[in-house]
What we know:
about 40% helix; alpha/beta
Amino acid sequence: MIPTIKWEDSRVLMIDQRKLPAKVEWYHCRTYRDVIQAIKKMVIRGAPAIGIAAAMGLSLGAASIRVSGFKEFKRQFDLIASEMLQARPTAVNLKWAVERMTSLLEASRGLKLDEMRKLLKLESQRILEEDIEINKAIGIEGAVVVPYGANVLTHCNAGALATGGYGTALGVIRAAHEQGKGIKVFADETRPWLQGIRLTAFEMMEEGIPVTVIVDSAAGSLMRRKMIDLVITGADRIAANGDTANKIGTYSLAVLAGENNIPFYIAAPLSTIDISIENGDLIPVEERDKEEVCKMRGRCLGPKDVEALNPAFDITPAKYLSGIITEKGILRPPFADAIKKAFVC
């Protein structure tokens, strides 16, 4: 399993995903601002991985606070947490991790500050370890929907590199492969960052899982030709009604899958569900620099200064989903009721 992020003494190390697959290189974060920049600059990406990075970044931030009393310590920690929340707006796991770390700090206000710092670091490591176990549970729950010999289409990268390890959508694929189901993966290239061809294809080949890359616009053609049996993607935020934000292009796949009577599943931990947001129209969608679309490796792909739009995510309405695969089982329509029940249990 490919590692994503880890502690090494007082530093946070993460695989620099911008360098893959050509080179496996560790990116070193010594301060919380290093972590924020790593998230913003796509060194690390994927909702669960961003949440883990945020937790570790807050621990680094706590270690840098040099005051004598809890009140001032908490004030400075809250400022760091506020900065961390601005790193990327769509992935709700970042907010979830910040709230979890902040709640832990508040609950330990009676301890010495050094003890608080240790607790925060341990909690960030616990979030990493929990994420790996959750992903494995998602894999087991989701493998039941994957037929023997299935051709599975996935979009972007929702594997070990997008999480603490194992993966969500790719966790389901891994579990099905481990069960000997003889599956084959089709991976969209995923413009403009090419996470599909660079990261998903890399992970699948490392695991010995058959994978074929297609350009994003080829998916509908393959579906019509009966070459795809089901679609599984990850998610960056899921609203209380099941509407889902994921990498740009996911919505198109869901519509095409519906047109061709192909099951379409989202695989994500419960922490990716934001029950405070009623529907997908309220999910903030990150708009990134147009240079990501217009250039590749610093070279212009089209006319100089051409305008471009670069939304990083789109919203897939819940009506297109066959199910949401979580660590507590597969949520089925009506999703509002299923989600509410999952959070009560």
